[in-house]
Amino acid sequence: MLDISPKAIFSIYRKYIREVRRLPHIYLRQFYQIQGSDTFRRLLQTEPESMRRTKLKRILKGLRRLQLANTGDHIAFNRMLDVAYGRVGKLRYELLEPLLSDPRAARPPPIIPGNEKSRPPVYSVELRALLTSTFSRKNPLKDKDLAFPSTLPERAKPGSEEAKLLGPLSKRREVNMRWHFFTTEVKKVLPPLQISIEPPLSDSSANDDARRSRRTDFFETDILQQTLDLAGYIGLPPPPTTRQRGPGIAPERASNLFDGKLPVRWLRRRYRELLGRLPILTYHPAKSESCSYLVSIPSNALTGGKLHASQLRFIGNEDLAWIRNIPHDGQY
Q: For residue 235, what pLDDT is reported?
């Protein structure tokens, strides 16, 4: 029988904190420390024993995943990153919630006359860009799917042949199908951490653009840049190889952004895989309102375990000369 006494819970909490301190970056440690304190506090406030036992089992499952992540299990570590960066869980909904409505857009007329609750959902400009992009979801939608969902039968069109033969579709059913399509497709979207703004031409327009762009939970933070740095963002040329440096010249030590005992190369690969699930939503003020947001991912992101061509080293004259000097039999 699982012990649910406060003494046993505090013992599990101390074990949880020890594992959190082993995480390789300060953001992960802060996130899971705050999340753990809230989770254990709610657990102690739970009165029914059956419910407390269920919550404790869920906490122990998360603790085992945390222990696996600290030992180098890539599946467990990817799950920890997904939770901390809003790919799954509560934070994912909090990042997506500001984009689910558009106060600047005109409210569409109700489908059922006189019934205010029958208004169809409104797709904001940001949400349209995310729904129709291959970087924010696996199967992107088309613009026509947002105007007329693919789940709606042709009977929903008053002048269609099906409507003439079988009769028009029920208005109440059309309302329900449109909202069901909206909620289902929104759940498939990977939300951005923040909305970037293309550098405007003047400072005066910068303030206007900042007001026009939407704000998420990580607005005015450097969390996105931190993630790019942890993944080894390609902004500088790669360091020279041993052959390019010459014998006897030691390589320059790069600053290590990670803590702990996990290999840096392994951690960078995990963060590059995270970048493949982390779309960047950029606001372009110079474009039209319908095309003002573009979705992209960093060039060094890993999607599906495949390397991008931008990650390969360009061949130089020294490399080319070295390759030409290799004998045909493969012997040096």
A: 46
Alpha-carbon span 149 to 166, nearest angstrom? 20
Phi and psi at 208, nearest 5°, equal: -65, -40
Residues 199, 202, 206, 209, CA torsion sign: negative
Reported as a single tens digit per residue, the pLDDT across 227-255 is: 999 998 654 455 566 666 566 665 554 56
Strands 280-283 and 195-197: parallel
Amino acid 329: pLDDT:
56
Q: Interior CA angle at 187 toward 183 and 193, to 5°?
A: 125
Among all chains, which residue has been given the structure tokens 């052959």?
243
Q: Enter the pTM of the model.
A: 0.79
Instruction: Quote the pLDDT of residue 310.
Output: 47
DSSP string, 255-309: PP---SSS-HHHHHHHHHHHHTT--EEEE-TTS-GGG-EEEE--TT--BTTB--G
Low-confidence residues in the chain, pLDDT < 70: 199-217, 219-220, 233-255, 286-291, 304-314, 327-332
Quickly tell me which residue has 């999340």 as its tokens: 35
Q: Determine the Cα angle at 262 with ends 244 and 304, to 5°.
A: 75
> Residue 248's CB: how many other CB atoms inside 10 A?
5
> Would you state the structure tokens that stand for residue 193, as one six-digit string?
């951490």
The residues facing 293 across adjacent strands are 283
Q: For strands 195-197 and 293-296, give the pairing.
A: unpaired
pLDDT of residue 332: 47
**Helices 49-70 and 74-84, packing angle to 10 deg:** 120
Both tokens assigned to 291: 């095309």
Q: In degrees, to the nearest 5, what angle opens at C-alpha 206 toward C-alphas 106 and 136?
A: 60
Token representation of residue 244: 């390019």
Closest CA to 259 of 301, 233, 230: 230
In whole angstroms, what is the distance from residue 27 CA to residue 25 CA?
6
Amino acid at site 185? E
d(CA 74, CA 262): 11
| Amino acid residing at 309 | A
